[in-house]
Design goal:
Helix content: under 10%
Radius of gyration: 21 Å
Shape: elongated
Strand content: 35-45%
Largest sheet: 7 strands, antiparallel
Structural class: mainly beta
Order of helices and strands: EEEEEEEEEEEHEEEEEEE
Length: 265
Amino acid sequence: MKVGTEPEKDDIIPLATIGVNTSSSFYILNDKIWIDGVQAPLNVSELADPSTANLYNTSDTAPMFLMEPGRCLYITILARGPSHLASTVHKAPLCIARSTDASMNSSTQTQIVVYAVKTSMTTIQGDVEALSDLIVNYTGFSGYAIIGRLSDSDVTTTYGSAASATFLSFITNPNITLKMTSRVLTNRVLRFLGETFFISPTPSYEFFAMDIKVAVNSTLDPGTLPVLVVWITDEGGTGHWDVLDQKCASGYYESSGDGYIVFKD
């Protein structure tokens, strides 16, 4: 068995022998491995490739296994029977969603509006718009995705797998990575406005247009522009902030006049 962040990848759990003979189930709980409901005498770190150094297995305490909200895990099983013939089974992706996240599912192109109310996201319409300080409006949405807000605790949590040396989280702490930007943003990001959220394909989606309406509770300094930035993980193990509008043009956003800023894509 192997587990990756994309089909065929093994950057969460590399190829490892998990069960033999009549073993029928496997799961990880509190960094421990359980087979057929019985705790196995090994933990997640023992599934790692011994030839690689692991960022998430340096503590003297129990090695970690913690995935981000919105993360999809692609599980590949290589089964071998008594005849020694092997078959490969690709399981449907397992995507992590919290009770406070909203799922967006549509087999046809449709409009979907997601509202953030306090710490939760919802697609239920009604009186929630007046209470929401973040609204995401999709036009022509089709596919599957999860959207959720990220708290200070979420962005300061370390995500990873003690079995992998190559796992890269898509969540970062903006207060620490403020200076890690693309060229167009170099020395131009002054501060973050405190609104952080994720939109994760589960496993894929597309849309015609997207408007993101954000309530701004502070006054913008003269000569500054609000921009919507995204964190992009780099294959080298780090990442950088980038802006969707590479020109940083003032037409990229609109002031709605009711205390909101609307970003358009």
